[in-house]
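STRUCTURE:
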């Protein structure tokens, strides 16, 4: 049985490396993308089980990528966790209303990322 697949979308290379290695070490398969355009291309090629999606990115931000994912019947059921330094406490409700499963505010520790992924995508439930 293959490991659950997490798509980690962040324009910050350090975040992709740190969060990705944490999730791989825990047993997840991790794919990465640097912006919303790559995210949608990756999802179209092979849908992940969960997406960690940064909101503030070049080319296409996380809000637009999420909107496109939610409009597509093939992808609207994938849990998407917002990861952002740009969402204040006051904006969390708007982000959740847009369709994100959860909002994680940067700075986020690797253990915060792992706990969130485990909540929405348990390793033993795959």
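SEQUENCE:
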């Amino acid at each position: 049985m293959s490991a659950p697949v997490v798509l980690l979308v962040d324009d910050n290379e350090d975040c992709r490396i740190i969060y990705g290695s944490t999730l791989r070490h825990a047993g997840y398969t991790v794919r990465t993308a640097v912006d919303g355009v790559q995210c949608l291309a990756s999802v179209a090629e092979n849908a992940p089980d969960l997406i960690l999606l940064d909101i503030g990115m070049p080319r296409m931000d996380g809000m637009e990528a999420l909107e496109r994912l939610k409009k597509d019947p093939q992808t609207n059921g994938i849990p998407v966790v917002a990861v952002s330094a740009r969402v204040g406490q006051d904006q969390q409700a708007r982000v959740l209303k847009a369709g994100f499963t959860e909002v994680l505010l940067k700075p986020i520790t690797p253990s915060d990322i792992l706990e969130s992924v485990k909540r929405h995508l348990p390793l033993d439930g795959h």
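REMARK: The domain at 5-119 is CATH 3.40.50.2300 (Rossmann fold).
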